[in-house]
Design goal:
Helix content is about 35%, strand content about 20%. It is α/β, with parallel strands linked by helices. It has a single domain, classed as Rossmann fold (3-Layer(aba) Sandwich). The chain has an 8-stranded mixed beta sheet with strand order 3-2-1-4-5-8-6-7.
Length: about 270
């Protein structure tokens, strides 16, 4: 993430079953990750809390996703609700910081998360905001078993928190409907990300507690693309997300050495 959440990465490189109290031992869940986000669940909508950087990053992220999806579906992204009639899945939705804005843009949104505490926070906030949403405590593999697909699928800063990353990516890709699009974001595994997303973010800037990151779980674009291709998607573009320290602003860039987006599509049938 690049913002607080983008910089929160997997604490364990190996798969382990979910701890008691979670509804399943998911194929891609890591108990240490669940525990970490369980402790942060009440902070999702606090702009000055643990996800402060995510709040700062979110507007840029929303604009990029909106523009990519508008171009793909032939919609005018500048109108009030350009995506009326289309469905969207947000995998790892957390407290709904991205899912709610997508619903405001007209999508029929389903948000899923492996933590029930996150889902409860998301549901409460959506109800208070008067936004119709579907939130479920579930994983991508759960939805795959239900044979459901969506016009758009998002997964922001999630893959670095899961076990069996390639399996997670190919599974998430199968949830994209024919003619649909997926936008995914994560952190590249490079020397630059070690310095910026690990050393600077934890030890120097103190944006996150020391020990939050595990650089080994960062994902190279080639690895991300391979997982999506195994799920039947065609990768279209890779863009970086960069931070300007002198202005404190985030912006989409051509530098994917640390944080980056990947956009992929599924061909239409016939």
């Amino acid at each position: 993430m690049n913002n607080t959440q983008k910089f929160i990465t997997g604490a364990s490189p190996s798969h382990s079953a979910a701890t008691p109290g979670w509804p399943w031992p998911g194929e891609t869940t890591i108990s240490a990750e669940l525990t970490k986000f369980q402790a942060l669940a009440e902070n999702w909508w606090d702009p000055d809390g643990a996800f402060r950087t995510l709040h700062e990053f979110n507007p840029v992220r929303i604009r990029y996703i909106r523009d990519q999806l508008a171009a793909h579906f032939g919609r005018d992204g500048m109108v009030r609700q350009p995506f009326q009639g289309l469905s969207l899945l947000d995998i790892g939705c957390g407290g709904g910081l991205l899912a709610e804005p997508m619903a405001r843009l007209g999508f029929r949104v389903t948000g899923i998360d492996a933590l029930d505490s996150n889902i409860q926070v998301a549901r409460i906030h959506a109800a208070e905001s008067g936004i119709p949403m579907i939130y479920r405590c579930a994983t991508a593999e759960d939805l795959k078993k239900e044979n459901v697909t969506f016009d758009a699928v998002l997964s922001m800063e999630v893959v670095e928190h899961v076990a069996r990353q390639s399996f997670f990516l190919s599974t998430a890709a199968t949830l994209v409907a024919p003619g649909g699009m997926m936008v995914i974001a994560t952190i590249n595994r490079t020397f630059y990300s070690l310095i910026l997303a690990k050393i600077f973010a934890e030890y120097i800037l103190r944006w996150l507690p020391i020990g939050t990151h595990d650089w080994r779980r960062f994902v190279r674009p080639s690895e991300l693309a391979a997982g999506l291709r195994r799920g039947g998607l065609t990768v279209l573009t890779v863009k970086g997300m960069s931070y300007a320290p002198f202005t404190g602003a985030w912006h989409v860039s051509d530098d994917s050495n640390v944080n980056y987006f990947m956009v992929a599509k599924r061909r239409r049938q016939g």
